[in-house]
Write a structure and sequence with these properties.
Rossmann fold; alpha/beta; Metallo-beta-lactamase, Chain A; 3 domains; 15 helices
């Protein structure tokens, strides 16, 4: 063991550990434990059997998607967790509706259900909402939320513990779209950046070109008399596609007889949240809102259930879930897949092993939910509206942040390694090297930060100029990661410590012969 390694082990309190409990060399179920100076922070939710829940000081939820927030009621109400939970106001508002719907549609037996509607309500009351750029502190842990793009209310968190700064990006996008701002750069130098790598070294199609191709494909499908299926998640990219389609229909009168349906009762409830938080969206939407509400659509109808749907001609149907594993989007795919006039457009990221990913490989048939084989004759197209950074956006943002350590997460292993290799080549000739880490789930990254040990002199002690050979004395007071030296008489002013004087009289019992002159 060399001296440097020995010093690191000797000062283990100066070692920060980062352990993925989800999204380590995989996409989804994001969670990471940051441990430093006796503090533990958890962005998103974990494998519960890998942690002691009562040791977590702080949970930071980046956005409302289920793979980041679905187990929060369980964690808050059915474990020993005693810390605090923070998210943005918009995230908290949508979280309530989204998880309430999740509880109702889970179809899990009472014995197997992990939490109830009451657990959700109780947890909701305890969640603390924060604004972007609001500086917060909990037990010496400082953190600030910054706009992350991605979805309404999404945040990246800048976390500071004992002077070490960590930027946790969560899911983020650096591209401004029709309603969301691009992710913003936090101020200051970051020691560590924990960054998503969903798309690895892939590049997204330019936005205007992508929108034009999308509307062109939709027009082509309904123009040939077909049904156009758009599998989406109820909240997020769906609102972007609704804005695009409503505007396109408005400028094409020949399409006014073709209905557009959005089959989601949940999304209709949450649209009130979108209308409430217009101020968190981009300038384009805010300006439009002064004239009319952009989320009151002229050409789109909300479809509560299939009982209200008459399948009698060309239409556009936006339905969840986005990866076609179950639900209404799967039901409609099976209903329409055998007719070549129909088409499906996959508009977001598809995880390996899902039906959405499978049909992109253009198989001749698919397996239905009941196990039968169905011919796949409908057209299948992929246009990425995914609100995750591509390689260009990600690498440029990493250049802006310039962290000492980069921890890549939320990416499939192959894509993550391609990104790491590309970044290593990019920084090959740079003077200040960046260490890049790609941990798997439950694999710990240890990063050593040699902290400065000092105490500030305050109060009357600071006002007095000491001689060079004078012995300096005072009371050392420490709170969280700050230490101070002060005069005992200043304790009341600078601390919550109370001072008091103790008067003591000592009684001595003397036995034997005592001289009468002794008093």
């Amino acid at each position: 063991m060399d001296m440097e390694e020995g010093n690191k082990r000797l000062h283990s309190d100066d070692t920060m550990t980062i352990t993925p409990l989800g999204a380590g060399s995989e996409v989804g179920r994001s969670c990471h434990i940051l441990s430093f100076k006796g503090k533990k922070i958890m962005p998103a939710l974990p494998f519960f059997d890998e942690i002691e829940c009562d040791e977590i000081d702080l949970v930071l939820v980046t956005h409302f998607h289920l793979d980041h927030a679905a187990s929060l009621p369980y964690f808050m109400e059915r474990t020993e967790f005693k810390g605090r939970v923070f998210m943005t106001h918009a995230t908290k508002s949508i979280y309530k509706w989204l998880l309430s719907d999740y509880v109702k549609v889970s179809n899990i037996s009472t014995e197997s259900i992990i939490y109830t509607e009451q657990d959700l309500h109780n947890s909701y009351e305890k969640i603390e909402a924060v604004d972007y750029h609001q500086e917060n502190e909990v037990n010496g842990i400082k953190f600030t939320a910054y706009n992350a793009g991605h979805v309404l209310g999404a945040a990246m968190f800048m976390i500071e513990i004992a002077g070490v700064k960590v930027l946790y990006t969560g899911d983020y996008s650096r591209e401004e779209d029709r309603h969301l701002m691009a992710a913003e750069k936090p101020n200051g130098q970051m020691d560590i950046m924990i960054c998503e790598s969903t798309y690895g070294v892939q590049s997204h199609e330019p936005r205007l070109q992508r929108e034009s191709r999308f509307t062109g494909l939709v027009h082509e499908i309904v123009g040939r008399g077909g049904r156009c299926l758009l599998p989406v998640f109820a909240l997020g990219r769906a609102q972007e596609l609704l804005l695009i389609l409503d505007e396109y229909w408005q400028t094409h009168p020949e399409l006014h007889s073709v209905p557009i349906y959005f089959a989601s009762s949940l999304a209709k409830k949450c649209m009130t949240v979108y209308q409430t938080y217009i101020n968190m969206m981009n300038e384009r939407i805010r300006k439009q809102f002064t004239i009319s509400n952009p989320f009151v659509f002229k050409h789109i109808s909300n479809l509560k259930n299939m009982e209200h749907f008459e399948d009698i001609g060309p239409c556009v149907m936006m339905a969840s879930p986005g990866m076609l594993q179950s639900g209404l989007s799967r039901e409609l795919l099976e209903l329409w897949c055998s007719d070549a006039k129909n088409g499906v457009i996959i508009s977001g990221y598809s995880v390996e092993g899902t039906l959405a990913k499978h049909i992109l490989n253009e198989p001749s048939e698919i397996t239905s939910m009941n196990g039968s084989k169905l011919p796949l004759r409908m057209s299948v197209e992929y246009i990425s509206f995914s609100a995750h950074v591509d390689f260009t956006q990600n690498s440029q943002f990493i250049d802006l942040i310039k962290p000492i350590h980069l921890v890549l997460v939320h990416g499939e292993a192959n894509e993550m390694m391609r990104l790491k290799n590309a970044l290593v080549r990019h920084y090959e000739d740079v003077e200040e090297k960046m260490e890049i880490h790609t941990p798997k789930n439950c694999e710990t990254v240890e990063l050593y930060f040699k902290g400065e040990k000092y105490a500030k002199v305050i109060g009357r002690k600071a006002r007095k100029i000491a001689d060079a050979d004078e012995i300096f004395s005072g009371i050392l007071v420490s709170k969280d990661f700050e230490s101070y030296i002060l005069d005992p008489e200043d304790l009341n002013e600078f601390t919550q410590v109370k001072t008091c004087s103790i008067l003591q009289r000592q009684l001595l019992k003397l036995y034997g012969c005592v001289n009468k002159n002794v008093q």
